Amino acid sequence: MGDVKLENVTKRYEDVTAVDNMNIQIHDGEFVCLVGPSGCGKSTTMEMVAGLTMPTEGTVHIAGREVTNLPPKDRGVAMVFQNIALFPHMDVYDNISFGLRLRNFEKDEIDRRVDKAAEVVQLEGMLDRMPDEMSGGQRQRVAIARAIVRQPDVFLMDEPLANLDAKLRVHMRTELQRLHKDLETTVIYVTHDQAEAMTMSDRIAIIDGGQLQQIDPPLECYNQPANLFVAGFIGSPSMNFVEGEVTENGFTSEYMDVEFDPSNYGVSAGDKVTLGVRPEDIYPAESGRSISSPTGEIRTKTDVIEPMGDEIFIYLLLSEEVETDLEDPAASNQLLISVPPDSDVEEDQDMSVVLDRNKIHLFDTESGQAIEHSLVASPAASGASGTSGAESDD
Ligand code: ADP
């Protein structure tokens, strides 16, 4: 049983609180990614599970046993790190079996485990190669095989693919998922790459400032982000945010209004809210007619156009001059939308757009907490909203 529980875990380094009262429960066999920006506390959290760092407060349980103060070797965990540390003078067999030989396992048992692990990571036939005769991806597979032969309750992986080139990373991503399917062992995986987290995880734990923001399946984090941080972090390109205020009839801001019945969402006139909408949920007005609940039209002007091959990103301006603030994306007058690759668009042309009401998120601007993820979530709201909706106020 490889379940892992962090209870009220805090780690302080003098004046830095690296991890702040973390509570996470990971089930046996789950693949959980810890994601967040650099310095948010991912590695420190992982190190406390591994036993490389002791918490200042709180407890760590693995497989139902408290391990808070146990050394790494007594925790039933195996680790794979970003920097692949193979012994350069040992061949693949010796590298994979090193830990088992150190623990005086029988030769037959070592051979059996090495063969099985080599099969899982597809290194059969390469056991006598030296590390300098192998590619980066193959060396990383040796490191993974070395973890597999330990037969741990839990695999801990800290950015194991970060040093590989982009193509190999995508390939190894699939291999790790296959490995997890085969071994059914709990995996805790640290990454700053949200694409990795989205594709591999059963659940994603999003961390910011040492605090857990949300832990949920990837699509739930995408569709129902708990707060502004998660909404902005998960999804590339990022969700559009517009700061404004609740009125008697919905939402108003400097450049756009969206009509809805505030009483359906527990907000009232005067409340400061931030509206969030993903690039794929904004449509040029004519194509937006096909969606079930568009807002009214919002007048914009196209600015930069980025053809990506499978889609086109269009930066739209809600007023004449560009106003951007990297620190506060919600204060910008831009909307980023994604349209099909065959769309006929040019820079500096007028374009009216509509938002898909079903996909509009509302957040409390001050606390950042999500209020609602669909403005037609309840039948009452859907009946009240109609299609007359928003209007440009420029
Ligand atoms: P992440 O893995 O998300 O990039 P870390 O867990 O490495 O973040 O670090 C979280 C915070 O704790 C950072 O501010 C970092 O500078 C600090 N920190 C980590 N390890 C130490 C340490 N050994 N001594 C002092 N500060 C540390």
Automatic annotation (TrEMBL):
Annotated Low complexity bias: 377-394
Record keyword Transport present: yes
Domain of life: Archaea
Gene Ontology MF annotations: ATP binding; transmembrane transporter activity
GO cellular component, as recorded: plasma membrane; transmembrane transporter complex
Topology with respect to the bilayer: Peripheral membrane protein
InterPro entries to which the protein is assigned, alphabetical: AAA+_ATPase, ABC_transporter-like_ATP-bd, ABC_transporter-like_CS, ABC_transpr_MalK-like, ABC_transpr_MalK/UgpC-like, Mo/tungstate-bd_C_term_dom, NA-bd_OB-fold, OB_MalK-like
Role played: Part of the ABC transporter complex XacGHIJK involved in the uptake of xylose and arabinose. Responsible for energy coupling to the transport system.
Similarity comment text for this entry: Belongs to the ABC transporter superfamily. Carbohydrate uptake transporter-1 (CUT1) (TC 3.A.1.1) family.
Record's protein name: ABC-type D-xylose/L-arabinose transporter
